[in-house]
Design a protein that fits this description.
The chain is built from eleven helices and 31 strands. It has about 425 residues and is of the alpha/beta class.
């Protein structure tokens, strides 16, 4: 059996998904996103016109038939927890139910420490995991954008009699260097080497320039997971992290396999994005306004669930020369008003107001932004709640943007937040 061929017999997979508990790691700070994550965890960041990043992982679970989910939160979790309560509480089907989406915040359940790493986050919730008594535990990263059926992933793990299976992505070496854990495998797919964020990743044999990068998604036999996180907790001088500590310690003595994430229809590399930088965040959103993006948000067979405030339909008003409300090659969410303005190749999240004679081009505008008259916005990310004064230019002159305190990336993407505009939405004292 090759690395990419697994049994998908429906009853077999269905049984596996029912016996699985999914734990979503959602406590990361997302520091490379700079000011976008100053007041929210990365999984709570807006994406795709109406969603939050974590919605993709949770929706993957539901669509895969996994109905028991726990979300582990820590860094600035208020926005994330509020979203989970508002958008996913419908899935709570009552006391003693075997279907749930449960929030597991860092609460010093074991000792006096917050979550010290990914493995420690699992260790501190062992009592909760044991209470659910799953046969398999699926550990997922909550900050990536992709659609994946986890059923074949679980099936591959069981069929190979693995102790642990790691989902991986074939990635250019230069893209993975210093960013992702990289695996070396033998001809059977068994992992024989694992390096956490190496500067020079090992290439895949026969595929020069590419390496096998970990997606941060793991399947564990439950008892094996208990053993390893307890062992890690008792080990001094460790970061209590799966990639840095647990995986390198087990690959020699245990059956640890790689699972290649591929498109089930074409067999080609599937869509997966780590939107961990401003450039990656902007580019992944921009891909969605193209004619046929690789990520299909309109797939009725694989819906992405979320919470959205009840808003009226988007409205476009004024129809005269020089003052026409229109949006071309763009995504515009409910509650938006484009009043005599021109929007092109952009995403407007909910309740965005673009006033007359303004233009918005190649930009990602998060919810509740007000763009005044005669503004020009180019290649920008405007954070939620910002009020753009009439006549403002953003993304036109990078040097002028930097002088005003905006963040401009090397690629020329300008980030503007309410704080940068002197508009205080968050109060610390």
């Amino acid at each position: 059996m090759s690395l990419y061929e697994y049994s998908t017999e429906s009853r077999f997979v269905s049984r596996l998904t029912r016996d699985t508990l999914a734990l979503v790691l959602a406590g990361g700070a997302g520091s490379r996103l700079r000011e976008l994550t100053a007041w929210r965890a990365k999984p709570a960041l807006y994406f795709g016109g109406k969603y939050r990043i974590i919605d993709f992982t949770l929706s993957n679970c539901l669509n895969s038939g996994i109905r028991r989910m726990g979300v582990l939160t820590q860094y600035k979790a208020h926005s994330l927890i509020r979203h989970l309560v508002q958008g996913w509480s419908w899935f709570q089907t009552g006391a003693g139910s075997k279907e749930f989406c449960e929030i597991l915040p860092a609460s010093q359940r074991v000792g006096g420490e917050w979550y010290r790493g990914t493995a420690d986050a699992i260790y501190q919730n062992l009592d909760i995991i044991r209470a659910h008594d799953p046969k398999l535990v699926l550990i997922l990263s909550g900050d990536h954008i992709y659609k994946m059926d986890y059923g074949p992933f679980l099936a591959a793990h069981v069929e190979r009699k693995a102790d642990m299976t790691i989902c991986c992505n074939e990635m250019p070496v230069e893209e993975a260097a210093g960013q992702f854990g990289v695996m070396t495998i033998d001809e059977t797919g068994r992992i024989i080497g694992f390096d956490e964020k190496p500067a020079k990743p090992n290439e895949i044999p026969g595929r020069p320039g590419y390496c096998l990068a970990s997606m941060g998604n793991y399947v564990f036999n439950t008892e094996f997971l208990y053993e390893q996180v307890i062992k890690d907790a008792d080990t001094p001088d460790t970061q209590h992290d799966f990639g840095r500590n647990v995986i390198p310690a087990i690959i020699e003595d245990y059956r640890v396999y790689a699972y290649a994430f591929r498109d089930p229809d074409s067999g080609e590399q599937a869509y997966w994005r780590d939107v961990g930088t401003l450039r990656a965040f902007w580019e992944a959103n921009m891909e969605l306004v193209s004619k046929s993006p690789q990520l299909n948000l309109y797939d009725r067979d694989w819906p992405i669930w979320t919470y959205q405030i009840q808003s009226p339909p988007a409205k476009f008003v004024w129809d005269e020369d020089g003052r026409r409300g229109e949006a071309i090659q763009s995504m515009v969410s409910g509650g938006c008003i484009v009043s005599g303005a021109y929007v092109h190749n952009s995403l407007l999240f909910s309740r965005v107001y673009v006033h007359s004679y303004s233009t918005v081009n190649e930009s990602v505008v998060l919810p509740d932004v007000d763009i005044g008259e005669n503004c020009r916005i180019e290649k920008a990310i405007i954070d939620a709640g910002a009020r753009i004064a009439p006549g403002t230019e953003i993304g036109v002159d990078p040097d002028a943007d930097r002088e005003r305190g905006f963040r401009v990336t090397e690629e020329g993407i300008t980030l503007v937040t309410p704080d940068m505009l002197g508009q205080q939405l968050h109060f610390t004292r």
